[in-house]
């Protein structure tokens, strides 16, 4: 049978570091049109789709929120479940780093967020 130590609760990971979290930015992104709206293939709600252009993901953690893009449910699913980032960018003809930087710099709350958490250098 199992000893009591064998069925102890799973260890919880530490929360995300504050410099990786920008909830207000994600909310703002969800209010934008899908990055790929011009294709005419969009379906579903807009979601914040995380992209890892600088390799800051880490094991068991999500990439920084400032590296997210607005995508409809359909395109987000194609990216995550079917193609992965390299093939997705090729199929739709865009460069992820440039788009992440463009959206981050367009966010009205960026300057205040960077004053509090440190400047992001995309």
Automatic annotation (TrEMBL):
Pfam families: DUF968
Superkingdom of the organism of origin: Bacteria
Name used for this protein in its record: DUF968 domain-containing protein
Native species: Sphingomonas abietis
């Amino acid at each position: 049978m199992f000893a009591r130590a064998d069925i102890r609760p799973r260890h919880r990971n530490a929360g995300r570091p504050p410099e990786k979290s920008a909830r207000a930015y994600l909310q703002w992104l969800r209010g934008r049109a899908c990055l790929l709206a011009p294709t005419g293939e969009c379906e579903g709600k807009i979601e914040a789709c995380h992209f890892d252009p600088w390799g800051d993901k880490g094991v068991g953690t999500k990439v920084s929120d400032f590296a997210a893009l607005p995508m409809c449910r359909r395109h987000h699913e194609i990216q995550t479940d079917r193609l992965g980032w390299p093939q997705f960018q090729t199929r739709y003809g865009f460069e992820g780093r440039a788009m992440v930087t463009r959206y981050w710099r367009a966010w009205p709350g960026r300057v205040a967020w960077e004053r509090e958490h440190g400047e992001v250098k995309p």
